[in-house]
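Researcher: Next entry: J domain-containing protein (Pseudoduganella guangdongensis).
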Amino acid sequence: MSTHEIIAILLGLAGGYWGIGRLLAAQEAAAQTPWHLVLNVAPDATLEQVDQAYQSMMKTKEVRNAYAAAIKALTM
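Model: Predicted structure:
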């Protein structure tokens, strides 16, 4: 194995590690935002209000995660 191949492998590993780290950090930050703030409803909103807010918003991953957290919190 040549020096160039070893360097390419190490750079690939470092780049992959960095990319995955950024992805996980973004997911963690989204998970820390309270669902009612993401959905722009009161913390004591009804299930119907949460559903209406969800349906009216662009369905981003952050909104889907907040909706799932709201359903979990309101149905327990």
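Model: Note for the record: The radius of gyration is 20 Å.
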